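Retro notes, item 3 of 5
We never archived the inputs for the DOR complex last cycle. Fixing that now. Sequence and ligand:
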Amino acid sequence: MKLLLKDGKVINPVNKTITIQDILIADGKVAAMGKELAASLNLDLDESTDGRSTVPVDSNSGFQPVFFNNKETSKNACPPIFVINVKDKYVVPGLIDLHVHLREPGFEEKETIATGAQAAARGGFTSIVCMPNTEPPADNQAVISYIQQTAQKTGMVNVFPTGTITQGRAGKELSEMASLAEQGVVAFSDDGAPVVNAKLMRHAMEYAKMLNLPVISHCEEPALAYGGVMHEGFMSTMLGLAGIPAAAEEVMVARDIILAGLTGCHLHVAHVSTAGSVELVRAAKEKGIKVTCEVTPHHFTLTDEVVSSYDPHTKVNPPLRGKVDVAALHAGLKDGTIDVIATDHAPHTPEEKELEFEIAPFGMVGLETAVGLVWTKLVIPGILTACEAVAKMTVNPARILNLKKGLIETGGEADITVIDPNLTWVVKPEEFAGKGRNTPFSGWSLKGLPVVTMVGGRVKWMKLDK
Ligand code: DOR
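Structure as it came back at the time:
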């Protein structure tokens, strides 16, 4: 199948340029790109049809093929060239989310690899990295292989598993890290829990460095965080809820930065949420320590004030912080201290999230609201340019994970996302493709939506005007 994306505003997140171009996709690759490609390649596009054509959307997608008005349909090419008019829309490298909980194996009532991958496609993500806090945990080759094979069968988006740092995520003994690496994990993490033992973390970093893979650290000092359900501060006092101090995160960020300096390992700090953490990462980068970090859309959008609703959908770990922290996250995004925007997509069942605040599980879904929040809260207000935002969801995570992705280039894999920056839409969790409905953004009006998600040249999700 050949496909032409016509007249899009193509973002190159490496050079930070936007150019109006056509992109021709053939055999899963970018065959050509340039201005007025249809004319220069002598493509015979028939403008005289009744203006109705169908771009095949993968049958595995679970979505109905989408019909749309399209004046340009190939006349006599065989196989036909499908044309998608993407004028006034951003055409960006397929988005990469390096922090997703797919829940399978073990918690299929919350999410499966198939439903999580569908949610990813809807959210504009062509590649996702899944965290190892499954049951059994992803601490051996069999579980990793199961995830890889199931994802392949699902055929929606690229799924890259992480392997645990410690066996069973129990923090006692290291996993067989070399064997996990051999099976193709892209990073090591005990996400959902910290590695409390500093000596064990040091050894994990030494092995990870030898294997040339990053360690993704869930930074939380458990004694300081113990019993807390929200950010410790004025709001927790007012609400009478036990707090998790910023220090619980920062103490571990500091420790892991020191260990990264000691070992030379690439440390990636997951879900940074406090001003102090941003400052620690900034200083470490200035010293030349190999550290990167991510922020979630919920942490750069919300403060702990929303917890006053006692709505368990606002309960997440690390917790939503104060205004000063959110401002520091914005500054860190702008100056490059924060490399990546990742969702920490953490689906839970309605039954679990209907429990009272103190006992409901931590976590919220994020795959299907990420682009809307990035555009509405960062790009439109001018905190990040479109190119900067896209870099943090494409080339930056690709570099951290050593993936040859994150850029649209001739000859490269056709993983492409089209974003309509002018489309205003309302978050309706009941319409999510993923199983989780646990979002605090229900009913929010957002501007900016992924309208085409293409993986290896195949359209996995499309929502264009009829
Ligand atoms: O809120 C969270 N939920 N934070 C985590 O670190 C883990 C995640 C989950 O697995 O539910």
